[in-house]
């Protein structure tokens, strides 16, 4: 499986370096190239209009300078580039939080767009991992250090939603954007895996680490 890592400009810590794999192709978006230092990696490609950081010096043809007036965000352009290069997976770092909430929301849309184009997308920060379940799909979520699991209808409405292995299970449920039924679920007692499926409408799944020590 080929994977690219798209690094955007929200601050990241060195702890996320453990998410990188040998052989990853690193695509830095605009000021996101500054995040390569704490992640101990070097960008293979840099893309951006460089409105938030000066264009860095790179050897060869690995810097793509975008116009300031455009429809795509720098991260969206990188995602489309990842699709064109036929990567199987994309890990997005530096795309959550920061001072621009609208960019976090935009990056969720970018993740869904990757999935719709056949690229498995994961958005990651120090506390949360975000993935998608597409219509007709079933995905397994082993506990893997996370405690909370939330599910939202990414396209406004999802039908035929089922969750198994969670404290609050769902069977053939309907999730809508107007009511956050799927927020803050947990693993059922004795469960080390939650299974999620949807028949109609994409889901965004947010796994989050506990706020503090879990007392048993």
Automatic annotation (TrEMBL):
CDD domains from the UniProt entry: TPK
EC code: 2.7.6.2
Keyword flag Transferase: yes
Top EC class, one word: transferase
Single GO MF annotation: thiamine diphosphokinase activity
Domain Thiamin pyrophosphokinase thiamin-binding: 136-204
The entry's keywords: ATP-binding, Kinase, Nucleotide-binding, Transferase
InterPro entries attached to this UniProt entry: Thi_PPkinase, Thiamin_PyroPKinase_B1-bd, TPK, TPK_B1-bd_sf, TPK_catalytic, TPK_catalytic_sf
Pfam hit, one: TPK_B1_binding
Protein name: Thiamine diphosphokinase
